[in-house]
Amino acid sequence: LISKDFEYAEVAVDGDADGEVAAGGKVSLKPKLRAGVAYTRDWYNLAADLDLTENEALAFEDPTQYLSVGGEVDLAGWAQLRAGLRTNLAGESNVVSLGAGVSPFGIHFDLAAMMDVSDPEKELGLALETGFYF
Fold this sequence. Notes:
The protein is an all-beta fold and about 130 residues long. Helix content is about 0%, strand content about 55%. It is built from no helices and eleven strands. Strands 5-6-7-8-9-10-11 form a seven-stranded antiparallel beta sheet, with no helix packed on it. It has a two-stranded antiparallel ribbon with strand order 1-4. A hairpin with a 3-residue loop joins β7 (about 65-75) and β8 (about 80-90). The model has no long low-confidence stretch (mean pLDDT about 90).
C-alpha cells in the first residue's frame, strides 16, 4: 500500500581483470489497485478483474492496465474446462487462455495454454499442474 524506492549500488564484475563495474540505479515500487467480481454456481464460475491504475513497466516492457474475464465449467465434479481473455487497455496485447483439468480419485491434472493473439511471438505459454487432495 506504500510506495518505496530501492537503490542498488555499483558493483565490480567478478572475474574481470579490467575492473569493469556494473552500474547502479533505482527501482520504484508503487501500489497497484485492482477490482474484481465473480459469480459462482454449482457447476460454473465467471469472473472479471480490472486494473484501476496504469502500471508502469519495470524494464523495457510497455505500461499495462489489464481487463481480464474468464469462466470455468465443472463437469460432474471431476473435469473442468476454462477459457479467458486478458486485454491491455494501455497497449495492444490480447491474451487468450484455455485450460482443462481432471480430478479423479483425489489426484488432479491440469493443462493450460495461453497466447497473445495480437503477436503470438510476444507471449506464448503452456502450463501443466498436478496435485493431490486428501
